[in-house]
Design goal:
Blueprint (H helix, E strand, L loop, with lengths): L5 E7 L7 H13 L10 E5 L8 H9 L5 E4 L2 H4 L3 H14 L3 E4 L13 H38 L16 H11 L5 H8 L3 H14 L7
Helix pairs in contact: 4-5
Length: 218
């Protein structure tokens, strides 16, 4: 009796990103392959960086996987961003845990097929080449980002959100300041009137008070 199960693993790097595309890919695959069923309980999803495999859902999935189970992923970069880690993890799953892996966007990476020596060699070779390309692309992006930042700094480009200007000479600001200083209005009202967040608000107030503090001779 075959007690093997089919699992799906999906990953995005942050909470703001959506897993819908990966789940849609799984849905389309199972629709076209009705003999492969993935129960909802066997879908594991992480919203965490792919820099390593220290992800709660993946670690739980790895504990559950048994020999002859099938692990489906949409692409290698959803597995990990690290070339070394991908190859190491792949070998542990397929050779130690005896789990099959299917990469949807790369049919050559399907360990269910060609389980002879030549088939394993081809799969391993393709995996290493693709993982290497993925890693080099990641390093190239980081390098370009670093060069771009250094170039921008040389041109005195400022990073981060633009500083919100406050017209200290306006009657509105001065009237609000006097009312706030005398306890007639609350800080939140003053802050919201200027369109500032707390840190920015107190920095602007400090600037204003420094500009308007008389120099008293010693």
């Amino acid at each position: 009796m075959n007690n093997s199960r089919n699992f799906f693993y999906g990953r995005v790097s942050s909470d703001s990103q959506s897993l819908d595309r990966q789940l849609d890919a799984l849905k389309n695959f199972t629709k076209n392959n009705p003999n492969i069923i993935v129960d909802e309980r066997d879908i594991f999803l992480d919203k965490k960086s792919g820099k390593d495999f220290n992800r709660s859902e993946y670690l739980l999935l790895k504990k559950i996987l048994r020999p002859n189970d099938l692990l489906i992923i949409t692409s290698l970069d959803r597995f990990s961003r690290s070339y070394i880690d991908i190859v190491k993890e792949w070998r542990e799953l397929t050779q130690v845990k005896k789990v099959d892996i299917l990469v949807l966007d790369m049919p050559l990476l399907d360990t269910r097929q060609n389980k002879d020596l030549l088939g394993n060699f081809i799969s391993t070779l393709v995996l290493e080449i693709l993982s290497y390309i993925s890693e080099q692309e990641r390093l190239s992006i980081l390098s370009r980002q670093k060069m771009g930042i250094e170039s921008a700094k040389k041109r005195n480009v400022k990073f981060g959100a633009p500083k919100i200007k406050v017209d200290f000479t306006s009657h509105e600001f001065q009237n609000l300041y006097i009312l706030w200083k005398n306890g007639k209005i609350k800080t939140k009202y003053f802050m919201n009137s200027l369109g500032l967040k707390p840190n920015s608000f107190y920095r602007r107030i400090k600037e204003y008070e420094q500009l308007n503090t008389p120099n008293v001779p010693l």
